[in-house]
Structure formats: structure tokens, C-alpha cells
């Protein structure tokens, strides 16, 4: 076992800088360097007190190990998303918790499995099958609208954003006229570091103002879904909103904060991540006409497109864990209580696991990516995401003869959930 490896100041700045995640190739270069030189490395704040030191984990095998061992590596008590100390203090003052939202991604056993079980069956393929016709009709309408607006469209805005949003809002009982509000609140919550997405001029905001904006989005979500829950208790249906509203754990209804967190995680993570993967797949195919033609001719490659898009884009870019005991990872001694970042972008581009990882390959096999996580905290909605993407690309490939870039694609400025915020394409319909 070697002594503690510490990242240089410049590399450490890149890892926590949201702007670095908008410059994808440069970011991957940095992670390649870190993974090669110091695959498990301590990240220290340049200014004392700015944030708590943490271990950066970049190798696929290490991230997989940590993800699957939920007894040794905990979601609590520290935040599960990288946070500056100022934001943590604000959250504690506002909610009494290290996180503004308490949801499935925050809880450990024994609470987590009990909460996850409430909706797990609802999100299984055999239940989702009944939604296929409705999702297929939505995909057809979305593609029709895109073609009508063409030949040049911003695919991120016209298709990748609204399509998964509508799917998730339907299962949560959100009316179509409220979807723009849900989209805005999601972007403030996940895309708050990006001035274009949050629509807030955040580049000119203080740290206190940024945290206050996110807290305001959370409060708006909570108020909205409290009304949904009240309605579903009085008038239950077969949607997931009713499951959450009428759920009991250990014979008691969910506490209001936990119920709100459940709604929020489904409402936000359920569409923003799928949107990012969908746009990523389309950009890859637009930049590779040969691969587009191959997939168009052979639809058996569609599942491969979906999995590769999710790996290649890695919409959830990291989570944080806390060591429950002293442990060795990658030759480094991680002590009980140490905070660590499992970085999915780095892990999903690890050449030890993926041959030529920056290449988008619809036929890649095996594809043991970590974009959905692994173990007990693996993404609850992974089957829904796969279903949505497969159905949409079936519709796209049926209706499009060729696709090519029509401008510069732009990524979101965000350390947590990221992806393309703009994807100009030129579409030639069949």
C-alpha cells in the first residue's frame, strides 16, 4: 500500500468545475491522465473550508466494487452529490438535512430497500408493457412534428427533451399544460450550474443566490406534488403517482418530505437523463453516416444503440459515497468517514473495460457500463428508459433517410447530470 495520492490543483479544479464537463473531449483527456497516474486520488480544496476533501475514483473496476457494496460505502450521512460547504450549510439550515431533497438516492438500508420496493414492480418490464402503445403513439407524434419543423431542427429541444418528459409526466399525473413548469424546475435543480438551462443569469449570481434558486425549485416541486398526492389519495388510479401517494412503510404513510422526495426523483431523473442519452445517440449517428445506414438496415442493433448511448453520454456523471470502515481501494488507504466521488464518466471511458471507449459502437459487446449504477441503488427506471429510447429510434429510423450535423452541438455546464443542451441537425425524411 502506498502513501496517499493527491491530485494537483489544476486537475482538482477540473474535476469539480461544471464548465469542464461542457468541454467533453478535454474532460476525457483529464480523466485518462488521472486514471493512468492516480486512479484513486485525494482531491483537496484550494481554499480551506471550500469543500470537504474527497477521494476521486476513476477506474471501472473500483467504481463497480463501490457501487455494489452498500454496507461498506454509504450514501449517508454526507451528500450523495458533490457539494460545496456553503451549500451543505444552507441545506441544513433550510431542511435539517445535508441534501435539499431526501429521496431513494440518499437513503441507506434498512430504509432504502423498503422505499424502493414500493414502486419497483411498477417499473418492471411486464408492467411497463401496457404503456408501449401509448409511448409508441407519442414517439410517432414527436417525430412527425420534428419532420414538419425541418429540415433543420435542434434535436435536443424538439425531440430529446419533450419526448421523455411527456412519458414521465403522464405516469406522475402531471397535466400537459404544466410540463413547461416541470421542465424549468428540473433544469434549475439539475442544470442550475448552466445559465442557459436555468434561465436565471446564474453566471452573475453569488453562491448564496444559486443555492436559494435550487431551494426554490425544490419548494415548488414539493408544493405541486403535494396537490397530486392529495388528489391520488382521494381518487387513486393505476399510475405511479397513486402508488406513491398511498404507500405505507412499516404500516405508516410516507412522511411528507420523503413522499415529496420520491415524486421529485421520479419526475426529474426520469426524463432528464433519458433526454441526454437520446440526444447523444442521435449526435453519434449524425456524425457517422455509415453506422446510421447500418442500424437503419438492421434493427436488431437498436438495443445496442440504447446501451451504447447511455454509456457514451453517462448522463449521471457522478455520485458520492462515504466509507463506513477503513478500506483499501486501488492501493490507497481510505479511512472510515472519508468522502469519495465515484465518477461514471471516467469509469464508462476506461479502456481497461471498453475497447476504444470514445468510439460510439452500436454493436459493442459486452457493454457493462455503469451509467445506471449497480447494486442496490441501480437506477429504478432503467427499463423505462430503455423502452422509451428503443421505441423512439424505431420511429426515427422509419421516417428518416439521412441525418447530418447542421451546427455546433453544445453540452450543459454541470458536474452532476449533464448532456447535450443543443443539437442542430439537418433531417432528410424518407
Question: Which keywords apply here?
Answer:
50% helix; five-stranded mixed β-sheet; alpha+beta; single chain
Strand content is 5-15%
The overall pLDDT average reads: 90
Largest sheet: 5 strands, mixed
Number of strands: 14
Measure the end-to-end span.
Answer: 60 Å
Rg, Å, rounded: 21 Å
| Oligomeric organization of the protein chains | single chain
Tell me the strand order in the biggest sheet: 1-2-10-7-3
Shape, per Cα inertia axes: globular
Name the poorly predicted regions. Answer: none
Measured as a percent range, the helix fraction is 40-55%
SSE-based structural type:
alpha+beta
- Give the count of helical stretches: 18
Summarize the structure in words.
- This protein has 430 residues and is α+β, with helices and mostly antiparallel strands.
- It is built from 18 helices and 14 strands.
- It has helices spanning 9-16, 24-37, 60-68, 85-95, 111-120, 125-128, 132-149, 155-160, 162-171, 179-190, 195-198, 207-234, 240-245, 256-286, 289-297, 302-313, 344-347, 382-399; strands at residues 40-43, 54-57, 73-74, 152-154, 248-249, 252-253, 318-323, 327-329, 332-334, 339-343, 400-405, 410-411, 420-422, 424-429.
- The strands form 5 sheets. It has a 5-stranded mixed sheet with strand order 1-2-10-7-3.
- A hairpin with an 8-residue loop joins strand 12 (410-411) and strand 13.
- The chain is globular and about 60 Å long.
- It starts with 8 loop residues before the first helix and ends with a strand.
- The mean pLDDT is 90.
